[in-house]
Amino acid sequence: MGANGACGEVATQRVRPLLGTFVAIRIDACDGDPEASFAAAFARIEAVHRAMSFHDATSELARLNREAAASPMRVGADLWRVLCASLALARASDGGFDPTIAARLVHSGHLPRPDAPPPDLDATWRDIELLQHQSVHFHRPVWLDFGGIAKGHAVDRAVAVLRQHGVHSGVVNAGGDLRVFGAAQETVHVRDPRDPGRSLPLLQVREGAVATSAGYFSNRHGRSALLDTRCDTTLGHGMSASVCAPRALWADALTKVVLVDPDGALPLLRRLRAQAALIDSTGRVRTLS
């Protein structure tokens, strides 16, 4: 690092606990002050965390779950973008990706019970209406949770901020949901379903994002946090799904669609210019593209 604070071509990394995991940001090349770039990128991730935390009763998401069934509520840009993407994926996957999964995760003990009206047992993502001026209305009470997509959105926003601060090349990694940009290249490792303590090199990525979902560490009382809400079955037992896409938001969310129905996910993967890899309990890798 030079005396003027510019990082040039020297790799620099910072790590902070955010989004329920550890977020690592690596800057490989930049024109400006790397510390200012780190601060701005982490602040952007913190803003996403504050808006979409299911655990925080003061978050914008918590307020939406409390109030949107009574009257339309206007939301901020982050929540609006993620909600729009979530509903688009829910429609395209026929509910394979389901942002109203929270009620089931509360029942299984994976999420705390919120201070919000109990969800209607027959309510689905179809009961969410997007109105003008970033307003949202629930036709019936539902509980939204964006644990399957918010990390990817936060990673994308952090990359945008880094670029605005003159960072040309680097990596943002939120607990395995990562995006690589510029000249940087990253070897992506995933956990071996046969031995989750061991990692396997899966691919190398440049100018793209990768995310992985699996059931090895999300089990509670024998149930995974990964669910197909259409038939209330758990997913990811003894296997993992990794998706490579141009944006981390799509990579993050598509891992759940792939786990629900690998073959049915193919048209959506192609539409979003994504590829997937499934690793089963024997270590066999199946690619989808």
UniProtKB/TrEMBL annotation:
The reply to whether Acyltransferase figures as a keyword in the UniProt entry is: no
Q: Give one Pfam family, short name only.
A: ApbE
Q: What class of enzyme is it?
A: transferase
The EC number of this protein is 2.7.1.180
Q: Which cofactor does it need?
A: Mg(2+)
Q: Does the keyword Transferase apply?
A: yes
* Entry keyword set: FAD, Flavoprotein, Lipoprotein, Magnesium, Metal-binding, Transferase
The record's listing under SUPFAM superfamilies reads: ApbE-like
Give me the reactions it catalyses.
L-threonyl-[protein] + FAD = FMN-L-threonyl-[protein] + AMP + H(+)
Q: What's this protein's family per the entry? A: Belongs to the ApbE family.
Q: What is this protein called?
A: FAD:protein FMN transferase
- This chain's source organism reads Agrilutibacter niabensis
